[in-house]
Every structure is written in structure tokens, then in C-alpha cells.
Specification:
Elements (H helix, E strand, L loop, with lengths): L8 E9 L5 E4 L6 E4 L7 H7 L7 E6 L13 E5 L14 E5 L5 E9 L3 E5 L9 E11 L14
Antiparallel strand pairs: 1-2, 1-3, 1-9, 4-9, 5-8, 6-7, 7-8
Length: about 160
């Protein structure tokens, strides 16, 4: 029976939960997640847990913050004076903004505080500093990426 090895292309159905049981992501009701093991397209702890699985095997596992999105870095929260921002910029707390860096990279920032004089943006991933719990079912193992007309939504 074939088992997942580094370099394999896999499809998995998954549900991700925080320690309090809150679901933060799931493939339930949609296409399975498709990625190449070892490519870095998913968090390291998730890739490592899928290694050795067989098709139709189910597995539950916990990924530490270090093996997920890393620890929170308080230096990534930046306070901007309203005078530095467009006058009509009034985002609600919790809104996620898409920003473009000077080298044309896209980064995401969460609005964490808004006052009359400042807006605070946090560039940490929203799951940074959190352990993640997953229930996974391996759907498929392949040694080749999907064909270009595949409907799974993968980027291979």
C-alpha cells in the first residue's frame, strides 16, 4: 500500500480547530486541499503529519505554534497617526487589509485598535502564537500535479 513520501502530490480533506474547539478552516463541503509534500505550500507541522499516511486513512494531530505560523511578534503591530492616513480611512477593528510592500509583495494586516488620532495594524498572521488541531483524511496520492484543466483549484 502506497504511503505519502516527500515530493508526492496529495489531496486531503481537513478541519482545523483551535484549542478551544473553534473551527478556523475546513475543506468540508468543498474540494480537498491539494499540495506537494515538502514544497512549503502548507505549514511544516501539517506536512510532517501527512507523511506516511495511506489513502482513506484518517488522522488527528496537534501542530505547535512554532510548526504552524510561529509565535506572535509584538514588533509587527504598528501604530499609525491619522495624519499619515487618507482622511476617509475609518476601518473597523478586526478588518483585514491587503497591503502592497515597496517590492510589490502582498501582506495582510489586521486592524487592532482605532482612536481619534491613531490606527493600529498588526502584521502577524491571525493564527500566530496558536497551536492548531487538525482532523485529516488522505483522499489521494499522486507523483504528478493535477492536469491544467483540474477543477480542484490547486495552483500546480
Amino acid at each position: 500500500m502506497k504511503r505519502v513520501e516527500k515530493g508526492d502530490f496529495v489531496k486531503v480533506h481537513y478541519t482545523g480547530r483551535l484549542d478551544d474547539g473553534q473551527v478556523f478552516d475546513s475543506s468540508e463541503g468543498s474540494q480537498p486541499l491539494h499540495f506537494q509534500v515538502g514544497s512549503g505550500h502548507v505549514i511544516p507541522g501539517f506536512e510532517n503529519a501527512v507523511l506516511g499516511m495511506a489513502v482513506h486513512e484518517k488522522k488527528s494531530f496537534r501542530v505547535s505554534a512554532e510548526e504552524a505560523y510561529g509565535e506572535r511578534d509584538d514588533r509587527l503591530a504598528t501604530v499609525f497617526e491619522r495624519s499619515e492616513l487618507p482622511p476617509d480611512f475609518n476601518p473597523p477593528v478586526g478588518q483585514v487589509l491587503s497591503l502592497t510592500t515597496s517590492d510589490n509583495q502582498t501582506v495582510y494586516a489586521t486592524v487592532t485598535d482605532v482612536t481619534d488620532t491613531t490606527v493600529t495594524l498588526d502584521l502577524n498572521h491571525f493564527l500566530a502564537g496558536k497551536a492548531l488541531n487538525f482532523d485529516v483524511e488522505l483522499v489521494e496520492i499522486s507523483d504528478a500535479p493535477c492536469p491544467s484543466d483540474c477543477s480542484c483549484g490547486c495552483s500546480f
